[in-house]
Amino acid sequence: MNGNAYLPQLARIIHIKEEVPGARAIKTFRVEFMNGGGFDHEPGQCAMISVFGKGESMISIASAPTITDYKQFSIMRSGRVTTAIHDMKVGDVIGVRGPYGNRFPVGDWKGRNLVFIGGGCGLAPIWPVIQTAVANRSDFGRITVFYGGRTSRDIMYAAELEKLRGEADVYLSIDSPEDGWDGYCGFVPANVMDKPQNPHNAIAITCGPPIMIKFVINNLREMGFADEQIYTTIENKMKCGIGKCGRCNVGKDYVCVKGPVYSWAQLKSLPQEY
Amino acid sequence: MDAILQKESLGRWIAKLQERGEVYAPEFVEDAWEFTKVERGASVELDHTNTVLPAKGFVFPQREVLYRFRIENGKTPELTDTELSVKPMVVFGVRPCDGRATVRNDRVFTCGVSDPYYQARRDSVVFIGLACNAPPSPNCFCVAVGGSPCSEDGLDVLMTDLDGRYHVKALTDKGRDVVNAASDLFQAATAADRNEVSNAQVAALEYPQRSISAMDLVVAALKRNFESPLWDQLARTCIGCGACTYLCPTCHCFDINDEVTSKSPLTGARVRTWDNCQFPDFTMHSSGHNPREDTGARLRQRICHKLLYFVETHNMQQCTGCGRCITHCPVGIDIVRIANVMEEGVWQ
Question: Per UniProt, what is one GO molecular function of this protein (chain A) (predicted)?
Answer without folding.
Answer: oxidoreductase activity
